[in-house]
Amino acid sequence: MNGYCLFEAGKEKDLIKDNTRIVNINGREIVTVDEFIHELARQLDFPDYYSSSLDSLEELLNDLSWLKETQFAIVVRNYSFFLCEEKNPARKTNLLGLLNDVAEQWDNVPNYPGEEDFRNKAVFNIYIEKGNIAAAELEKLNISYNEVK
What we know:
- This protein has a five-stranded parallel β-sheet.
- The longest helix is centred in the middle third of the chain and has 19 residues, at 89-107.
- The radius of gyration is 15 Å and the shape is globular.
- By secondary structure, the chain is α/β, with parallel strands linked by helices.
- The protein has a single domain, classed as Barnase, Chain D.
- It has helices at 12-15, 33-43, 54-61, 89-107, 132-140, and strands at residues 3-7, 20-26, 71-77, 123-129, 145-148.
- Pfam families: Barstar (PF01337).
- Residues 21-108 form the Barstar (barnase inhibitor) domain.
- Belongs to the barstar family.
- This is RNAse (Barnase) inhibitor barstar.
């Protein structure tokens, strides 16, 4: 099942399988939504036409056809600092929900008739280093997560 996973520091390598494109995010360095989108664009080699809007981000995360890997993992460390300077709190909330939606959509392919002709089901997980803030934020948004020991 795709989605959010909270992990103990140092255990993420045990969770991620071969042929996985890993996006490493350090919450101390990525403190706004725009910085996060830019970093995803860099690490996932987004096409030139991407923009920093959440709509564009969702479209590209639901494609990823330009990548050779067939599994995807976003790994966030230092979550207590992640997006801490975002001036619009709703953007962080929307981003967390968007990532959850993208994970579900990859898990549920086909989401509509004919989708399986160009997109296969894939693993798409968001791994967050354990801490009270991450669990509380996800619970507040009614986003389920797995705890990995």
